[in-house]
Amino acid sequence: MGRSGIINPVNTEKITLIATLTAGLESTVKYELRQLGFEKVRASEGKVEFEGTWADIPKANLWLRCADRVLLKVGAFTATTFDDLFEQTKALPWEAIIPADAEFPVIGKAVKSTLGSVRACQSIVKKAVVERLKEAYQIDWFAETGQRYTIQIDMRKDVATLTIDTSGSGLHKRGYRTAAGEAPLKETMAAALVSLSFWRPDRYLLDPMCGAGTILIEAAMIGRRIAPGLNRSFAAEKWPVVPAELWTQARREARAAIDLTTPLSLHGSDIDPDVIEIAKANAANVGVADDIEFSVKDIKDLWIDRQYGIVITNPPYGMRLSDFQELNQMYISLHKTFRKKKGWSFYALTADRVFPNYFKRARPDRVRKLYNGSVEVNYYQYYGERPPKDE
Ligand SMILES: C[S@@+](CC[C@H](N)C(=O)[O-])C[C@H]1O[C@@H](n2cnc3c(N)ncnc32)[C@H](O)[C@@H]1O
User: Fold this and answer.
1) What percentage of the chain reaches a pLDDT higher than 70?
2) Which sign, positive or negative, has the C-alpha torsion 358, 361, 363, 367?
3) Would you say the CB of residue 219 lies under 6 angstroms from ligand 1?
4) Has residue 18 got a pLDDT over 50?
5) Exposed, middle or buried, 259 (CB in 10 Å: 0-12/13-18/19+)?
6) For a FRET experiment, which of 125, 145, 178, 379 has its CA 20 to 30 Å from that of 305?
7) Higher pLDDT residue, 88 or 327?
8) Which domains does the chain have, with CATH numbers?
9) 375: Cβ below 6 Å to ligand 1?
10) Residue with the nearest Cα to atom 5 of ligand 1?
11) pTM
């Protein structure tokens, strides 16, 4: 990065980006980044770091389905005193990214570090950046009326990583979910559930407790190659350091990538007629209304007459005893429907640890610990046989 104010960035200049994510999805996001063609992709707890160019800020924001945000890494160093933190923060080339009129709030977190006070770290970083920008722009006071550059200090085991958020709202905000039922899944988590399953666009997919339809809509977007960020804006969209042409070009490429021809077989049902209307409206917002068949159905009435399908679902989970009894009955219904279905793979995300005691088709082939918001959940995976080649 240049050192004296914002210059026209050279598009081949290397920058380091960080995709943040929900714990447990490190390998999923790493795989996504590799599929997008990124190199030097390194996963660690809660994030994946990767190398790119300025043009990759639009690309990563538009295309990442399972990550929470894309951060621009400005620097990382060891700091065990506030003086260390101040001097090393001030030594970074903030003016190469942040213009004189920018709004630049500082947020932070600290884990297992000598400098454990997040508030103190934030305030030192703010002071250091202000000092740096004062010298660079030869001004004494910043009105902060321009575009937002949210700086984050992540103190982990005495290493400070300083970043600027390029996404703005979290990447789960795709813009299509104008309404939701009770306990909707985050779109990023729904995409991850699909990505962690055996589903491919040519396979039959069913969510029999589909709520607002998030899992099926994310599958449709994968099947149609619709970039999840195509219908929203991002914090870095008006940054001079990421020229508008880069965004226009990334959006143009994303629109050209949409596949309108692959046939999809996506099916959702729910006991609640209101939520099915919401699911239909959400699917229409993305342009995949014709790709998903939604119906109102109690899982007790589910009738499956085909082989080799895939279920990905997120049953409700309650806290009262009566709820648990009702839930157990639901798991038994699912078990009865799927126990002898040839070639069906079954995936369920739930916080309810007794699920496998009632859905007894077999022991789960894999149980993956994930987080739905702050709630620890398990993704129970039961693998069915793969369909013969000509199915
Ligand atoms: C946790 S929510 C699913 C949320 C969904 N994944 C989404 O993102 O919107 C569970 C859903 O199960 C539905 N449900 C509850 N009992 C049901 C039953 N017996 N048959 C079918 N659906 C049921 C609820 O109406 C609710 O929409």
Assistant:
1) 95
2) negative
3) no
4) yes
5) exposed
6) 379
7) 88
8) 15-165 (3.30.2130.30), 187-226+259-382 (3.40.50.150)
9) no
10) 211
11) 0.94
